[in-house]
Amino acid sequence: MIAPPRAAWPSRAVARSTRAMVASPHPLATAAGVDVLRRGGNAVDAAIAANAVLTVVYPASCGIGGDAFWIVHDPKTGATHAYNGSGRTPRAASLERLPGGTVPQRGALTVTVPGAVRSWEDVLRAHGSRGLDDLLAEAERVAREGFAVTDVVAAYARTNEALLRDDAEATRIYLTSGPPRPGDILRNPDLADTLAAIRRGGSDAFYTGRTAERIVATLRARGNLMTLDDLAGHRTQAATPLRIPWRGGALLAHPPNSQAACMLLAMGMLEHDAHADEPLWNHLAIEAMKRAIAIRDATFADPDIAPSGIDAELTAERLRALRAEIDPERAQPKVSREDHGDTIALCAVDEDGGAVSLIESLYMNFGSGIVAEGTGVVLHNRGAYFSTEPGHPNVYAGGKRPMHTLSPAMYLRDERPEIVFGSMGGDGQPQILVQFLHHLVERGLNVQQALDMPRWIYGRASIPERPDVSGSEALIVESRMSEEIVAGLERRGHRVALLGPYENAMGHAHGIAIDRDRGTLAGGADPRADSLALGL
Length: 536
Prior knowledge:
The chain is 34% helix and 20% strand. By secondary structure, the protein is an alpha+beta fold. It has a seven-stranded antiparallel sheet. Helix 5 packs antiparallel against helix 9 (189-201), helix 13 (261-269) crosses helix 16 (316-324) and helix 13 crosses helix 17.
């Protein structure tokens, strides 16, 4: 390990505690999770309570009309599990029935079955200790009574005003007097009623009955072939996390259809590069991510339909071969599709050693732009990530899950969690996680400093802050990045575009580091959102 980079004081104090902790992008969500922990709940209980509040207070980024991916460590069994809460296209859907053979970016045709609510119940049944009635109470209260709009949420609403105005229900909820301003109170009584129904009837109250009927009616009126059977038949899929040995422990990620394996691919390629100076390391990391993204784009899809072969890609031999392809002095040309995603990430650790990394999302800001009539539920647009190339593993088809950007992660030592972490940011998620791990583990910064450090993201071209940036070859870099690193990247052929110092477009990540020797937790929250890490 070489000397750590110069780092300013962290943007806020590191959250420290001896018992339990939650980190999320909004204080109300973190507080809801910590309250559950204080009342004796475990990490899964806390994660659900926090996620439920986020579906109210961060409506552009997540919602019960979206999907969720989990990594859960259960201290009772000592096992770590992955849970896939993503939904499928309607069974009657097909590429041939898409107008013009293309998947739009927004609208009803992009809506797949929302998987988040069922995943709450399924993961709770396997590892939780409370019921949905208890855990969703705070989210229902906040939706009914209202919350103070933050600058981040106001900016999302302002940026997406045209999309919201195209839907009468969205306009009624989010644009009553124009886009909400920071400090305005935003209420969603329809969503409160939907959450109340789930509290009483469990996830079936979402996937069957009145709510399901309204979702189906809203979508079918706009050309989506969703049926009540499509909703009622949805279930969460349990899986085994992917892993690679790393720095004396095991680095874990959710398997495809999640893209989280891109982090494993990149960190595996970079295993012997921790000693590199910062300009070189950043170049190597970008090039490693390009190769990981190329593998993802070629092979990742619904694992029930098209196995990705990712296990073969994660062997030591294959990772060394991929690393050997990287030119230390020259950037590789464009390899990825353009990305537009948005999401939330949260982490929870309890006093018994349970841990959760949970990513939940509508995909793009406000998802499809459609609110199911009378429910307050914004429906996601995950179907926009399907390919329309016949024969491609991720090609659009009926009853199929798309490739997903959601990338929960965890680091274990001696099979117990040591770092619980995740990030929003579309295609940027594994890129952000690679940089976070580098700063935290290989450069020795604390968890908050590691989150604060300036970032780059490759291939995220749709950024309102920089409308002049186009094409997925752009490397977006925060302006705080050192001149030495930026110069080194440009000299090697990277097309660098600078953003402001702390940009929401660069993702908001969260992390909890567990120090078992001293019996303490250290939590970090991303300054690019309204984030808060808080412990008991």
